[in-house]
Design a protein that fits this description.
single chain, alpha/beta, 11 helices, 43% helix
Amino acid sequence: MIPCSILDLVPVTDGSDARRAFANMLDLARLGERLGYRRYWLAEHHNMPGIASAATAVLIGHVAGATETIRVGAGGIMLPNHAPLQVAEQFGTLASLHPGRIDLGLGRAPGTDQAATRALRRYYQAAAEFPADVIELLQYFEPVQSGQAVRAVPGAGVEVEVWILGSSLFGAQLAAQLGLPYAFASHFAPDLLEQALHVYRDTFRPSLRLGQPHVLLALNVVVAETDAAARRLFTSQQLGFINLRRGRPGLVPPPVDDIDAVSTPQERMGVDQALACSVTGAPATVQLGIKAFLQRHRPDELMLTANVFDHAARLRSFELAAEVLQGLRDAPPA
């Protein structure tokens, strides 16, 4: 069975606040470590009331300091919002504090709307410079060369595992060209998944960082004692997407009994398409769903995410998911 990890958007639920979201984040990270999850990633978003992970590097340090063995990283840092030198310094610092445990996933989108992009003092046109920015950033992690005018302190010569994130063919091509591991955002943008995997695997060039293609896929997984209970928990994530597409992003809403009663058929069709890579249900149902996903796409790693409203139910979902994954590991070969 392949390594499995957790992607946490640090959800701020209706009636709660960021402080509580951060406490929940540590609960989940510590649980994930105890259960054997390999990585715990946080994602950069801005101007999103229901997501508290805007200061991603700060939270990575907080989680890494509260855990001992689990790898902690960014899934990802949206590079158009930042100067490559600053990112190298931040993650060089994190990796110096927590050797061998820090991951840096790099994304090309701004992770926000145009108004917030302008407020960040960086501009979306910078996305066109993404390949050059990635190369510059990678160079800052290399040992300092004689006569080098600018160096990352700390950062130069520090081990940071760098990934390219993507939901299109662009990221797949870049990751293959640079010989970097590739993480695909299949949990919310699955349309080009199979094409992107084909491009990455077929055009990969080995590098000093990576000798062969290495793919991580994200999957929405919500597990409860029954199929009906899991489907109900999942409606919070569905409603969040619907509200976002209505232009009303907000706090993570509580679940509802009937998602069709609070959405139009067109909205439901859109959210079903965006969240097509999802597995919900009781453990037996989820085991079948994860097994089918793995057999179809053959990732090297899997990353689970679940935007569940109730914190205890969210912890239980990841606990049950770990049991499902262990069952897949223990199952005899087909």
